[in-house]
């Protein structure tokens, strides 16, 4: 049997690859007539294989492939002035679902240097795009629902705080009134966190804005004369996860309440300073006042609920608590260092 000329052999080989391909492929002449179509193309787009070969691309099926923009790009590809890469088209067919397609095309050397051939690969991404849109919709709906829940929780906490304040005004017991005031302040701090979370992108919390809002809330509820007492916030650009911000917020709340209750008796003038700095996994939070300082020895008050809350929170954060004389006043420093030790006790009652 005589050997086929190399040009015929290469053309036959190309045709065989196209026809047997598992991917939708079209082998086109320079004038965009179909030389061969893969069986997968015919199955995917419901085209009778016997009606494809030799026909112009725009006449395949019911004419749904007659797309001027695609035809123009194919001509530019054949001339070498352009290349179709991941070009997206919609295949619109009467009484059938529109399909979203991604098209790639390139010239193909089939052994004959005097003619140009085009290989057109088509990928149906309809289902993938639908799944992506559904996922995006679900994420968006979840975010909206979460924000709504956060707003409702914050509003509910505000109502609870108001009820606690009303109850505090009615009770006769000074001790009971103090407990209700403390509960009110703690509820207000959580409400401030909820408001911050509702405006945070992706649930992450910007600490500077959160601590500022938190201290404004505490000041509004506990400082009757802003000219006498103030709370200053100095925080770096740290943005943290919600769980971490909750713990830090509660620590700040307890220590600020503690300072407001104990550090400035007899209408003393002063400031409470909040400072937070982080570097990688390491961080430091300090709450400093310029009040009367820490009572020592027998004058030191018994540890209260606030102290227990702070110690538990710091222990959960694998942090370390240190109390220092700020001369005047008191500095409470809470820090976390990778591989560092366990927390110590806080000795001033809250």
Chart the SSEs and their pairings:
Layout: H1 6-20, E1 25-29, E2 34-37, H2 39-44, H3 68-79, E3 84-91, E4 99-108, E5 117-124, H4 126-170, H5 174-198, E6 205-206, H6 207-222, E7 229-235, E8 239-240, H7 242-262, E9 270-279, E10 282-289, H8 305-316, E11 320-325, E12 330-336
Parallel strand pairs: 7-9
Antiparallel strand pairs: 1-2, 1-5, 3-4, 4-5, 6-8, 9-10, 10-12, 11-12
Helix pairs in contact: 4-5, 5-6, 5-7, 6-7, 7-8
Protein name: histidine kinase
Keywords: ATP-binding, Kinase, Nucleotide-binding, Phosphoprotein, Transferase
EC number: 2.7.13.3
Number of helices: 8
Give the tally of structural domains: 3
Helix content: 40-55%
Question: What characterizes the major β-sheet?
Answer: 5 strands, antiparallel
What is the β-strand count? 12
Q: Please indicate the percent range of residues in DSSP E strands (runs of 2 or more).
A: 15-25%
Relevant CATH superfamily of the largest domain: Histidine kinase-like ATPase, C-terminal domain
Secondary-structure element order, as H and E?
Answer: HEEHHEEEHHEHEEHEEHEE
Give the termini separation.
102 Å
What is the general shape? elongated
CATH fold-level assignment of the largest domain:
Heat Shock Protein 90
Oligomer: single chain
């Amino acid at each position: 049997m005589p050997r086929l000329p190399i040009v015929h052999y290469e053309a036959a080989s190309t045709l065989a690859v196209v026809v047997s391909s598992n991917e939708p492929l079209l082998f086109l002449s320079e004038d965009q007539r179909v030389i061969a179509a893969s069986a997968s193309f015919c199955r995917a787009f419901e085209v009778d294989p016997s009606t494809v070969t030799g026909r112009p691309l725009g006449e395949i099926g019911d004419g749904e492939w007659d797309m001027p923009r695609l035809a123009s790009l194919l001509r530019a590809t054949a001339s070498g002035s352009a290349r179709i890469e991941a070009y997206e088209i919609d295949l619109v067919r009467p009484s059938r679902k529109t399909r979203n397609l991604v098209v790639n095309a390139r010239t193909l050397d089939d052994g004959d240097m005097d003619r140009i051939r085009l290989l057109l690969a088509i990928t149906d991404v309809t289902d993938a795009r639908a799944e992506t849109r559904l996922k995006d919709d679900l994420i968006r709906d979840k975010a909206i629902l979460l924000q709504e829940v956060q707003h409702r929780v914050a509003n509910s906490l505000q109502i609870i705080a108001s009820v606690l304040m009303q109850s505090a005004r009615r009770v006769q017991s000074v001790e009971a009134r103090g407990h209700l005031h403390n509960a009110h302040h703690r509820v207000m701090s959580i409400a401030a966190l909820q408001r911050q979370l509702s405006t945070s992108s992706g649930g992450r919390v910007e600490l500077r804005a959160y601590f500022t809002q938190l201290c404004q809330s505490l000041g509004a509820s506990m400082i009757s004369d802003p000219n006498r007492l103030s709370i200053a916030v100095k925080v770096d650009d740290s943005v943290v996860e919600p769980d971490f911000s909750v713990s830090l917020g509660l620590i700040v709340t307890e220590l600020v309440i503690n300072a407001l209750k104990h550090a400035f008796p007899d209408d003393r003038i002063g400031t409470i300073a909040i400072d937070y700095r982080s570097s990688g996994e390491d961080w430091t939070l300090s709450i400093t006042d310029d009040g009367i300082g820490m009572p020592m020895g027998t004058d030191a008050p018994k540890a209260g609920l606030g102290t227990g809350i702070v110690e538990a929170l710091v222990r959960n954060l694998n942090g370390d608590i240190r109390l220092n004389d700020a001369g005047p006043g008191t500095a409470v420093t809470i820090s976390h260092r990778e591989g560092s030790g366990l927390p110590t006790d806080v000795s001033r009652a809250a």
